[in-house]
């Protein structure tokens, strides 16, 4: 059992790029291939997680848009139907960094640039 542990520790050090002086070109090629496979698996898992997160965020966006429409209807305001309307509204606002609005408003928000 101690011998197996020692072999695994040596392999681990080699995979981490340590103690490579004693490796033959064939061993280095094998280690490189193993690292490429591992990297490919890591990238695939990362992509899978990102795609799942994007899907969850899109579902959340849909729910929030529906909630926004419901609340806007309840308040008698016109709902922003799509996120591109929000972007176009925000881009139409002043982008000057020297103008800052510091007033506090209570109540329904008005369509104004901040």
Automatic annotation (TrEMBL):
GO CC, one annotated term: nucleus
Name of the molecule in the record: K-box domain-containing protein
Domain of life: Eukaryota
Listed Pfam families: K-box
GO MF annotations, alphabetized: DNA-binding transcription factor activity
Residue ranges constituting the K-box domain according to the UniProt record: 1-81
